[in-house]
From TrEMBL:
PANTHER family: PHOSPHATASE RV3661-RELATED (PTHR43344:SF13), PHOSPHOSERINE PHOSPHATASE (PTHR43344). The lineage of its organism: Bacteria, Pseudomonadati, Pseudomonadota, Alphaproteobacteria, Sphingomonadales. NCBIfam families: HAD-SF-IB, HAD-SF-IB-hyp1. One of its GO terms (molecular function) is hydrolase activity. Keywords: Hydrolase, Magnesium, Membrane, Metal-binding, Transmembrane, Transmembrane helix. The chain crosses the membrane at residues 32-51. It comes from the Bacteria. SUPFAM superfamilies: HAD-like. This is HAD-IB family hydrolase.
Length: 224
C-alpha cells in the first residue's frame, strides 16, 4: 500500500475525559472570570440538546458565546489556547494512547487526529503529541483576526467526521484503494469511521461501542 494512515479520535480515546468544557472554563477563568457565573446556563443548554431542542452544532456555538464570547481577538485568545494544550498534555492523556501513537509512528503510519473538538485548540494538542494532520471542527473565522462562535461547514462528528476524512484524503491525493487505515475511537458515533478502516479498534469503549465491536469482531484496547 502507498499510504498508511492511523486515525485517532481525541476525547476519551487519547484523553481520559472530554476537553471542550475544560477549554471553555480555562479560557473564561483566564480572560473574563465573571463568565464563570454563566456555567448553569451551559448545563441548561446541555439539557436542551438532550431534549433535541437544539442541535449539537448549535450547542457548541452557544456555549462558546457564553463562556468565551461571540467575537474574540485571536491574539488575545491564543496564549490561553496554548496553555490549555499544556494542561491537557500534563493531566489528561492516556499512557496507553501515547504508546500506541509511538508504535504507529514506528510502523510508518501517518498520524491523523480526527475529532469533533475545535481545530482552534486541537492543533496545539496534536502538535505536542506528534500528529501529522488534524481533521476537526472549524470556526467560520478560522484564518481571520477574530474568532467567532460560529462553526464553518460541518461539526466533525458521526457521518460528518467520515465525510471530512474522505475530503481530507482527496485533498491529499490519497486513494482509498492505495491506503491502509488503522482507526481508534471510544464512542459508537465513530462507527462510520471504524467501518471505513481496514483495522478498527474500540479504544476504551463505551458500552454501545463495546457491543458493536464484539458483534463485528473489532479488537478492543483499554488504555490507562
Amino acid at each position: 500500500m502507498t499510504h498508511r494512515l492511523a486515525i485517532y479520535d481525541m476525547d476519551r480515546t487519547v484523553t481520559f475525559s472530554g476537553t471542550y468544557t475544560g477549554f471553555l472554563i480555562h479560557v473564561a477563568r483566564a480572560m473574563a472570570p465573571w463568565r464563570l457565573v454563566l456555567l448553569p446556563c451551559v448545563i441548561l443548554l446541555m439539557l436542551a440538546y438532550v431534549l433535541k431542542l437544539i442541535t449539537r452544532q448549535r450547542l457548541k456555538e452557544l456555549n462558546q458565546t457564553l463562556m468565551v464570547g461571540y467575537n474574540v481577538e485571536r491574539a488575545r485568545l491564543m496564549p490561553h489556547v496554548e496553555s490549555y494544550a499544556d494542561k491537557v498534555i500534563a493531566t489528561n492523556v492516556r499512557r496507553g494512547a501515547l504508546a500506541q501513537i509511538a508504535q504507529d509512528r514506528a510502523d510508518g503510519y501517518r498520524l491523523v487526529l480526527a475529532t469533533a473538538s475545535y481545530r482552534l485548540y486541537v492543533e496545539p494538542i496534536a502538535r505536542r503529541l506528534g500528529f501529522d494532520a488534524v481533521i476537526a471542527t472549524d470556526h467560520l473565522s478560522q484564518d481571520l483576526r477574530y474568532v467567532r462562535a460560529k462553526i464553518a461547514g460541518e461539526n466533525c462528528y458521526d457521518t460528518g467526521k467520515l465525510r471530512m476524512i474522505k475530503a481530507w484524503m482527496a485533498a491529499q491525493a490519497i486513494d482509498r484503494g492505495q491506503a491502509h487505515i488503522r482507526a481508534y475511537s471510544d464512542h459508537v458515533s465513530d462507527a462510520p469511521m471504524l467501518e471505513y478502516a481496514d483495522l478498527p479498534f474500540a479504544a476504551n469503549p463505551h458500552r454501545r461501542l463495546a457491543l458493536l465491536a464484539a458483534a463485528r469482531g473489532w479488537p478492543r484496547v483499554d488504555w490507562e
